[in-house]
Each structure stands twice: as structure tokens, then as C-alpha cells.
Design goal:
The structure holds two protein chains of two kinds. Chain A has 13 helices and no strands. By secondary structure, chain A is an all-alpha fold. Chain A has two domains: about 45 residues; about 210 residues, MetI-like (MetI-like fold), CATH 1.10.3720. Chain B has two domains: about 200 residues, D-Maltodextrin-Binding Protein, domain 2 (3-Layer(aba) Sandwich), CATH 3.40.190.10; about 220 residues, 3-Layer(aba) Sandwich (D-Maltodextrin-Binding Protein, domain 2), CATH 3.40.190.10. Chain B has a five-stranded mixed sheet. A four-stranded mixed sheet of chain B has the order 6-7-5-8. A two-stranded parallel sheet of chain B has the order 9-11. Chain B is globular, with a radius of gyration of 23 Å. The chains are: A mainly alpha, B alpha/beta. At the A-B interface, helix 2 and helix 6 of A face helix 4, helix 5, helix 13 and helix 14 of B.
């Protein structure tokens, strides 16, 4: 009896301790959540105030008016349809090509053993480590001189295809790495039976591996879409016409040369962030699994 | 509404030009004596997507097309992106003519062979510009690479109504003692005397420029920025000694405010004066016409009687022709028009969305200043008093020195003014460590 009581007491004590611990952790997480949400909340709050009000009363004043004027102005000044179209023109082909080429290499590297397959995988992964800022001048010069050589100066430079190409080249390393680690988790026996059944290499890839890769491709696709969507750098240095650049550069249109209306900019930033948010919430599951993809070897 | 009209008329002008292209082109070549021939279509790269400059550019292009029949493709890029990417832009597939800045920033690219020689343009329109503009348009090899469009002065800005309330007369603030007395009076009334923001790192360069020019003179200033004088010179120390006297009258959060934060202090009547380029007047105008009309500018006070108030920072904006463009001749022809009083008047005739004129102080001697507003007339007066024009520190010295070195150096001085000797040493050693210009 007394033993039971003691045990119960100990359990209660432990529960209590656990509760305090949980509470402590909750507070901790809460603080972090606040820290993370603060910039976003502040952006949205800022976007609802007219700059005139801020200029006259200061940043930390009680607002005189709150409205959506900044949004309607941002939409008209950013030329949204044009720049969203430009973004689509870059993002869609880039993501598909990256996934296609990445899966091809990953397939060969992980399913067939030949002398150089590990080195090949390393080579592609190592490409990831090069910072874009380091290679942009050579890439730029290459694009320009190639354009001169073929007599069409805008064949790669100042063309969405040039930007697509560089995104594919840059993202393929990561895609290959992730997809090959995923493929390694697929039992070898499946491949072996496919080969015994007489599947050619191509059939093996399209009919056997691709369907199995679907979840990995989906999550990688989501990740790639957000990355390429958010790119500003390559479009800036590899394009000279602003009217061809993606939505990220359209944000700059809200920033005047002399007058920077941060409230308008906040509204524009919120609008530009919406598509990635929508993609994220629709495909949240894939996104999270994408982050841990390849981290464990099943 | 009138903006809309403007757009329509421009379009119909273009259409008319397309239909009657041949006739006008022929007429153009007959009128070759006027300096404009048919040089074919060209592309123009604008360095702004703001409403005002866009309306001005459209008016200019429409007038040019109407006169010559040459179609101009208009490519506008937001100013920061344009500026950051200019090197690639000029090496790649640039527009034929584009908007840029005078002085060192132009020379830097001219030296690399990226800009086309505009000496021919200057032979035609040169007599419409004062000598100082020609100097600012000239590259290190003595040829012109730039055509000026507009400028704005850096001076001491204040609100007339505040001066009235404080019983101050701007005419009595001409030298350092009177200036300090004014600041002191403002401080006693609980006001910030000299609003300053330097979070961006470039804002305070204007203060350095003017103090150095007032104390040590124009020649020392340009020599220092060109590396012919040393940053460790006692004369530079003196600049910071004077500057330190202003600190008690500044807002305490200089490094937390960007220029617009300082401007807000002036707008909200919390600060009495501010040294800044007059371009910020657009903000006052946007706030309300009354605020804009209340704004006033005087030259920065004299410090050393030997120099008086003879120097001013007045950055000049204008145009260049890209050497790698497809139609250099067309670009030059366009600039001949843009620099001529005819083109200048087309720009000055542009109206904003409310049908009001867009304030711009032109570089052309022949400009009609009668339509200028009082604030613009004051800018002209401030400019007229100056004998020497400088472009602003970050336009007058190497780009890899101004932003990365001088900016942070002044910021660290604000943190601890006693460190001045160390800061001067750093400035000089960083200058010495710069790679030679190719």
C-alpha cells in the first residue's frame, strides 16, 4: 500500500516536473515564434499605413488611417501580370529541367555501378558549394561572347533561357544528391527483377524508377520552385532589360530613386510573397518531407 | 488626366511618325543644318521608373521622334538595379543612349572604353552650357562622354515658418559663429538644430564635403579625393574638429536614422535645419504643397574667409552613349537633341499626374526660369554664388573607396569622435591598398 502510494507520489512528482518542463519549453517556443512572426507582422502592419502618415507623425505613432491603398497602388505600379509571367517563364522550365536531368543522373549513378559513378556524384554535388557571386562574371562573359559568336547577342544574355540554364546548372547538383540518396532507399531487387524481365535502361528509368520517385520529385519540386522564384541575383546580372526580369525585381519598381515609400514596399513584398506562401500551404507535407529528404538511409 | 493625354498624344505622335516616317525622315535630312538627321531607330535606357522622370522622358522622346522621325525604344529600369548592374549592362547589350551621372562615375566607365565619344555633340550644343558643366562631362583623356540634364545643390535646408517663429533671419546665417549661435538658440528652445542621419553611410559624406571645402578650399578637397593629398593631413583633422562642434546640436540617433528619418525631423518641425541635397523637396511636395512652399535653402556658412562660400556639391545627372550599343550615331544624335534647349524645354514642359509641372533645375543656360517655383529659384541662387562645383564624395572619388571605406569610417567616427587619428590612418592605408585602376 505504502509502496503504491510512494510510487503514485513519485509519478505525480514526475508529472509535475514534466509539466513545469513542458511549460518552460512552451514559453521558450512561444518567444521564438514571436521573434519569427514579428518581421512578418510588422511588414503587414506597415503595409496598411500610408507613408504620408508615417512621414508626418513618425514610425511609432498611432495610425490615423489604415487601409489597403498601398496594395492597390503596388499592384498597379509593379505591373504584376507582366512580371509574374516573366517569373513563370523562368521558374517552370527551370524546375522541370532540373528535376528531369537531376533524376537522370541520380538514376545512373545509384542504379549502375561503373568506375566513376561516385566521383560523378561528387562532382555534381561539389558544384553546389560554389557561390554564385564567384562565378557570375565568367558566366556573364561567356553568355555575351557566345551571343557575339553566333551573331545573336541576346540568345542567352538578356533572355529568359539564359537564366533558366544557369538555374538548372546550379540546382542540378542538389537535385542529383537528393534524388540519388532517395533512390538508394529503393530496394535493388525491384531493379533486378525489371532487368530480368527484359526492361531496357530507358524503360527501367521511365516505367520503374520515375513512378517510385514521385514523392521525392514532388517535394524537391516544391523546394526548387520557391528557390528559383525567390532568385533576384541571376536575373539582375544576366538580363539587361527590366521588362524581362522576374517579380523579385519588380519590387524595386516601388522603390523610388529619391523617395522610398517603405509602406508601399511592404505591401509589394507581401504580394510578391503570396505565391510562395500558397505553394507552401498547399504542399506543406511535401515541403517538410523535402527538408529531411535523404537525411536517413532507409 | 493630363498624364493620360500625354500618353495618348505620345502614342499618336509615334503612330504618325511611323506612317509618315519616310516623309519626315526626308525632311530631317533636308534640315541637316539643324543638327538632326535620320539616324534610324535607337533604344534609350532610363534610370528610373518613378512617375515624374517617366513623364519627363516620355515628353523628351515624343519631341525627338516628332522632329526626326527616329523611333526610340524606351527601356526603364529601377535606379538601384540599374546602377548596380551598369558594368554588365555596358559590356552586354546596352541601349544606345542611357541616363547616367557626371564626374568620376562617368570617367570610370569612359576609361574602360564603354562610353562613346561625344565631342561632336559638344561642338554643337557646347555654347549652351557653362564651362563647369563641360568639365564635369569630360573624361580623363580630354574628350566629352556625357551630356548634362539636371542638377540639384546640397545646402542648408530649413522651414521658413520655423525661422519666423524663432525670430531668425536666414540672411544672418553666413558664417560659422552665426551658424553656431543659431543652433544654440534652437537647442535652448528644445529643438534639434542640425538634423542628421547616417545609417546609409553616404548621407554624412555631404557634410564632410562641404566642411572640407569651406575650411581647406576646393583644390585641397578634389586633390584629397583624387589621392593627391593625404587623409592623415592635419587639414583633415581640422574638418573633424569643426564637425565635432556640431554634434551637440544633432539628434542623438544619427547612426539609427537614414536620410529620410532626418528629413522627417525637419518636416515635423522637431529640427531646425538639415544639410541635404534639394532633391528631397519632392517628399515635402508629396506631403502637401504648403510644406513644399515652406521649404528653403541657403548655402552652407563660411568658415575660412579665404574660401568664402565658393564651393558647392551639386551632382549632375545626364546622359551617355554606350559604345557597345548598336547605333552610336543615333545615340549621339538623340543626345544632341536632349541637350539642346529644344529637348530641355520638352522635358520642362512635362506634367505630373495632377497636371502640375515637375520641378527640375536644368543645366542648360537657355532654360526659362520664370516658371520655376520659389524653392527652385533659391536653388539657382545658391548655385549661382558658387564658383566651384563638386559632384559629391561618392561621385568624386573611386567607387571602391567611397562606399566601402569612407562610409564606414565616418560612421565609426560618429561612434567615437576621439578616435579621429586612428580613423585617418585607416582611411589613408585603405587608399594606399587599393588596386591600381586598369
Amino acid at each position: 500500500m505504502s509502496v503504491d502510494l510512494q510510487l503514485a507520489q513519485a509519478a505525480a512528482k514526475y508529472k509535475n516536473k514534466q509539466k513545469i518542463k513542458d511549460r518552460f519549453i512552451s514559453v521558450f517556443i512561444g518567444i521564438f515564434a514571436l521573434v519569427w512572426i514579428f518581421p512578418i507582422a510588422w511588414t503587414i502592419w506597415t503595409s496598411l499605413r500610408p507613408y504620408k502618415d508615417v512621414r508626418a507623425n513618425g514610425l511609432f505613432s498611432i495610425p490615423e488611417t489604415l487601409n489597403f491603398d498601398n496594395y492597390s497602388q503596388a499592384i498597379s505600379r509593379m505591373d504584376l501580370p507582366l512580371y509574374f509571367w516573366n517569373t513563370a517563364l523562368i521558374t517552370v522550365p527551370a524546375v522541370f529541367l532540373t528535376l528531369f536531368f537531376g533524376s537522370l543522373i541520380a538514376f545512373v549513378v545509384s542504379r549502375y555501378s561503373f568506375k566513376w559513378n561516385v566521383s560523378l556524384l561528387l562532382l555534381f554535388t561539389a558544384g553546389n558549394l560554389l557561390p554564385a557571386q564567384l562565378v557570375f562574371i565568367p558566366v556573364f562573359k561567356m553568355y555575351v561572347s557566345l551571343g557575339k559568336a553566333v551573331g545573336m547577342p541576346r540568345i542567352l544574355y538578356d533572355s529568359p533561357w539564359g537564366v533558366v540554364l544557369i538555374h538548372v546548372a546550379f540546382q542540378m547538383g542538389f537535385a542529383t544528391f537528393v534524388l540519388s540518396s532517395y533512390m538508394k532507399t529503393v530496394p535493388k531487387e525491384i531493379s533486378e527483377s525489371a532487368m530480368v524481365d527484359g526492361a531496357s535502361v530507358f524503360t527501367h528509368y521511365t516505367k520503374v524508377m520515375l513512378p517510385l520517385l514521385r514523392p521525392a520529385l514532388a517535394s524537391l519540386g516544391v523546394l526548387m520552385t520557391t528557390w528559383i522564384y525567390n532568385d533576384f541575383f541571376w536575373a539582375l546580372v544576366l538580363m539587361s532589360s527590366d521588362s524581362k526580369r522576374p517579380i523579385t525585381s519588380a519590387l524595386g519598381r516601388l522603390q523610388g530613386e529619391f523617395v522610398t515609400d517603405y509602406n508601399l514596399l511592404a505591401a509589394g513584398a507581401t504580394i510578391a510573397a503570396l505565391p510562395t506562401l500558397i505553394v507552401f500551404f498547399l504542399l506543406r507535407k511535401q515541403f517538410v518531407s523535402g527538408l529531411t529528404l535523404g537525411s536517413t538511409k532507409g | 488626366m493630363s498624364d493620360l493625354n500625354n500618353g495618348i498624344s505620345r502614342r499618336s505622335v509615334l503612330k504618325g511618325a511611323a506612317v509618315g516616317g519616310l516623309g519626315i525622315a526626308a525632311g530631317g535630312s533636308l534640315l541637316a543644318g539643324c543638327g538632326s538627321g535620320a539616324t534610324g531607330p535607337l533604344a534609350y535606357g532610363a534610370r528610373s521608373v518613378d512617375a515624374g522622370p517617366t513623364a519627363q522622358n516620355e515628353a523628351l522622346l515624343a519631341a525627338y521622334t516628332a522632329k526626326t522621325g527616329n523611333e526610340v525604344k524606351y527601356n526603364a529600369t529601377e535606379s538601384n538595379a540599374f546602377q548596380n548592374n551598369l558594368s554588365q549592362y555596358l559590356q552586354g547589350t546596352p541601349d544606345d543612349a542611357f541616363e547616367w551621372m557626371a564626374g568620376y562615375r562617368m570617367q570610370f566607365f569612359a576609361e574602360q572604353g564603354l562610353l562613346a565619344d561625344l565631342t561632336g555633340v559638344w561642338d554643337t550644343i557646347g555654347d549652351q552650357y557653362a564651362e563647369s558643366y563641360k568639365i564635369a562631362s569630360t573624361g580623363l583623356d580630354g574628350k566629352q562622354y556625357f551630356v548634362p540634364r539636371s542638377w540639384y545643390p546640397w545646402g542648408l535646408h530649413f522651414r521658413k515658418s520655423m525661422f519666423q517663429e524663432l525670430g531668425l533671419n536666414a540672411d544672418n546665417v553666413t558664417n560659422w559663429d552665426e551658424f553656431l549661435k543659431m543652433l544654440d538658440g534652437m537647442k535652448k528652445k528644445g529643438l534639434i538644430g542640425f538634423a542628421a542621419g547616417n545609417k546609409g553611410g553616404w548621407e554624412a559624406m555631404g557634410t564632410f564635403d562641404i566642411l572640407n571645402a569651406r575650411i581647406n578650399g576646393y583644390q585641397f578637397h578634389v586633390d584629397l579625393l583624387a589621392g593627391r593629398e593625404k587623409w592623415t593631413d592635419a587639414k583633415v583633422t581640422e574638418v573633424f574638429t569643426y564637425w565635432e562642434q556640431l554634434i551637440p546640436y544633432m539628434n542623438t540617433n544619427v547612426l539609427d536614422l537614414e536620410w529620410d528619418g532626418a528629413m522627417q525631423l525637419l518636416l515635423q518641425k522637431k529640427a531646425g535645419s538639415m544639410l541635404m541635397g534639394s532633391w528631397f523637396g519632392g517628399n515635402f511636395k508629396e506631403q502637401s504643397e504648403a510644406d513644399y512652399l515652406d521649404l528653403s535653402i541657403i548655402p552652407f556658412p563660411e568658415i575660412n574667409p579665404a574660401n568664402g562660400r565658393d564651393t558647392i556639391d551639386a551632382p549632375i545627372d545626364g546622359y551617355c552613349v554606350a559604345a557597345n550599343g548598336t547605333n552610336n550615331e543615333g545615340g549621339a544624335d538623340f543626345l544632341k537633341f536632349a541637350g539642346d534647349i529644344e529637348g530641355v524645354n520638352a522635358i520642362l514642359g512635362a506634367k505630373d499626374a495632377n497636371g502640375l509641372p515637375i520641378p527640375m533645375t536644368s543645366a542648360n543656360k537657355g532654360q526659362d526660369t520664370s516658371s520655376y517655383d520659389p524653392f527652385q529659384k533659391e536653388q539657382l541662387a545658391v548655385m549661382a554664388e558658387a564658383k566651384y562645383i563638386t559632384q559629391f564624395l561618392d561621385r568624386d572619388t573611386r567607387p571602391d573607396f567611397a562606399g566601402p571605406v569612407v562610409g564606414p569610417a565616418i560612421q565609426s567616427w560618429f561612434k567615437n569622435p576621439k578616435d579621429i587619428a586612428k580613423i585617418q590612418d585607416t582611411l589613408q592605408s585603405q587608399w594606399d591598398a587599393l588596386p591600381p585602376l586598369a
